[in-house]
Design goal:
single chain; alpha/beta; Rossmann fold; 13 helices; 11 strands
Length: about 325
């Protein structure tokens, strides 16, 4: 129901989403589905002749889907000039800027930055670094305190929904960065219609273990409480104390979460990435994401093992995430 609701919102938002991986069959299939379902106006980047030929081989109808070749586009000179203006203080030369905008992810980033598109989805064929580096350089975060991070929407077979962060981007956040991730994920959950109940996860519950790793989680929790007293949050909590009411009664009886957390903040990327994949594989939960948060405009990074359905879902989420 959540995904269906997001798709209805995407249809109403009428956004334009760029897919810079026209070389990937899954992306071509997803582009056709997203266009046919009116989730967004779709732009595919890549060699136009090759994309049309491959679509024919796959019996896909790309009518109504725009195809642009970043190596030969009317936008190249403008994008090159803008990128040079943004990055010359970092040592970027005009020639380097001209070369970069011919790369699909940089071209997609410039389309979003210039308002030609509302967001882009990549990662089926590109690494996370290739997908997000241009966005971090050009689209950026709204301020220095905000950390670009990611979250997964985890939907269990019982239709219980959790928000996991960060499972795909920030490797070893500081306490301040972890607090920023928690705040962003709480706000993301709220934007999807949920009342966030945030658990800051650790191998300790309320002092049951002493370690600098635990101290970081405790400090991050305190920062969130100071900055955003409106967010219901508790930490440090072990996973069972965060999501099992009976365990919470024993381990942390005065916790405001009461074992009913729906936003789970992992202390580092290792635990987050392992955690979401365990739930996905062993509990057969649907993992939607990773969904990037913290940037000025929506850019989303797919897993390279993503399915066509995954790409369609993230296209819808990206469209909904775009500000009016």
């Amino acid at each position: 129901m959540l995904i269906d609701d997001l798709k209805e919102k995407a249809k109403a938002s009428k956004k334009t989403i760029v897919l810079p991986e026209g070389c990937d069959d899954r992306v071509l299939n997803a582009a056709c589905i997203a266009h046919a379902d009116n989730l967004a106006e779709i732009i595919i980047l890549g060699d136009i002749d090759k994309i049309k030929w491959r679509a024919g081989e796959l019996n896909l109808n790309l009518d109504g889907v725009s195809i642009i070749d970043p190596k030969n586009s009317q936008y190249n000179q403008t994008f090159s000039d803008v990128l040079y203006g943004l990055r010359k203080h970092k040592g970027l030369t005009p020639i380097q800027a001209s070369d970069l905008v011919k790369q699909p992810c940089y071209f997609a980033t410039m389309m979003v930055h210039q308002g030609i598109a509302d967001g882009y989805v990549s990662g089926a064929a590109h690494t996370t670094a290739d997908t997000l580096r241009p966005a971090l350089q050009v689209i950026k975060t709204p301020d220095k305190e905000t950390v670009a991070s990611s979250f997964f929407i985890m939907i269990t077979p019982e239709d219980k929904i959790y928000f996991f962060a960060d499972c795909g981007f920030v490797k070893n956040p500081t306490d301040k960065e972890l607090a920023s991730i928690a705040i962003a994920t709480a706000d993301s959950a709220k934007s999807f219609g949920f009342t966030p109940k945030v658990a800051m996860l650790s191998f300790s519950t309320k002092g049951s273990a002493k370690d600098p790793l635990v101290d970081k989680v405790i400090s991050a929790t305190s920062i969130v409480k100071q900055k955003r007293p409106d967010i219901l949050i508790d930490g440090e909590l072990q996973l069972d104390a965060a999501i099992v009411p009976d365990v919470a009664k024993k381990k942390c009886p005065i916790s405001p979460i009461q074992g009913d957390a729906n936003v789970l903040i992992f202390p580092d990327l290792q635990s987050g990435n392992i955690g979401y994949k365990l739930v996905q594989r062993f509990a057969h939960a649907k993992a939607v994401g990773p969904i990037v948060q913290g940037l000025n405009k929506p850019v989303n990074d797919l897993s390279r093992g993503c399915s066509v359905e995954d790409i369609v879902d993230v296209i819808a989420i990206t469209a909904v995430s775009s500000k009016q």
